[in-house]
Write a structure and sequence with these properties.
The structure is a single chain. By secondary structure, this protein is of the alpha/beta class. The protein folds into two domains: 283 residues, Aminopeptidase; 130 residues, Roll (Aminopeptidase i, Domain 2), CATH 2.30.250.10. β16, α9 and β17 form a beta-alpha-beta unit. The model has no long low-confidence stretch (mean pLDDT 96). The longest helix is centred in the middle third of the chain and has 17 residues. α2 runs parallel beside α6 and α6 packs across α11. The chain has a nine-stranded mixed beta sheet with strand order 1-2-3-13-4-14-18-16-17, with helices on both faces. Helices cover 26% and strands 26% of the residues. The structure holds zinc ion. The site of zinc ion has 6 residues, from α6.
Amino acid sequence: MSEFVADLLAYIDLSPTPYHAVAESIHRLEQSGYRSLAENELWALEPGGRHYVVRNEGSLLAFEVGTESPADAGFRIIGAHTDSPNLRLKPLPDVVQNGYRQLAVEPYGGVLLHTWFDRDLSLAGRVTVQSRAGVETLLLDFGRPLMRVPNLAIHLNREIGTEGLKVNAQQHLAPVIGLEDGPELRDLVAIELRAQGISDFPPEKVLAFDLMAYDTQSSGVSGARGEFIHAPRLDNLASCHAGLTALLQSGEDRLPAFTRVVVLYDHEEVGSRSATGAAGTLLAEGLDRVVTGFKGGEPQGLARALASSTLVSADMAHAVHPNYSDRHEAGHTPVIGRGPVIKINANQAYATDATTSGFFASLCADNEIEPQYFVVRSDLACGSTIGPITAARLGVRTVDVGNPMLSMHSCREMAGAADVAPMIQVLKAFLSED
Ligand SMILES: [Zn+2]
């Protein structure tokens, strides 16, 4: 297994939720000398300054200031998203019925619901507690199998063979977490916080939580020659990892004139309209503050900076499915293992155009990589990304790219081991070359 693949698998396993993905990304940034900036501080920036900003624990903006004023030299930005479709706890989740204790859950984003059945699920996320100092939010990961959404036996569901599995999201998804005399969720959270040495508050001090289910099976490599990665949340932690790794590695080279930026957004899977999502102000305000914070700023700085900036929106792409190839556009069939995919949609579900597609293709060519191309069939609706949303908000030229994968939005997805390094290489080149 290559070093990059092993590192990606570790990153994914350390990141069961967007909050954990941001925490792990911060850990890596700090090891490379990046320092936290608070949104409520005045920013004063110098060439070579390495900084990051977190918003609401789920989104992250990291940047390395270039040698020249951003107003003159612009930004090179890589964007990706930290969230993945999953099952999230409802605020009063405890359900007791038929002798079992269960948790009420709500699907987040476009979940392939059937893939969550018969998996060894755990819980992770954040918990808000009443501490002596006030209200405090803590990260929590149970880290072990806790619960399961059991399938119905075929003997009681003969029609599944002819009609397929029909899942009612309200009726059929509540994971079983124990027998009816087991602890309530708040008790369980308080016990776990204490057991992990995070805090020592009684259950009544647990005020609220953003907790979600995840599969405890570790990410791994599979295929006769180790061709594949089998893992949860490849969409889109694989792109977060690629962007972040490219940023950290490019920092070992000469500092360019432009300012390097990586933005990792929460809430892409539910449309990006939130304070932390791509339709929010995180990037626009952050870039404005980089421009004005650089040696006191310059007139019309942000507009000038954006006019000479480029965004690579990195999100996973649909590889052609061997058993469902009729669902793909026959002339555009990306294959796992053949490298980065440029995603194009005339109706602007992707922000790519000839200029940005050509720009990315030439970056690939410089690195002896041949890009693949994806367009959706004309009779199917196209998925989207943070690309068009960010492009519309900032007016920045944008290309949508991603590595090819199968089983997108499954509890356990599939991508290519050989695709990890080339994407990092091209993104690193993007952040390195003037
Ligand atoms: Zn995605």
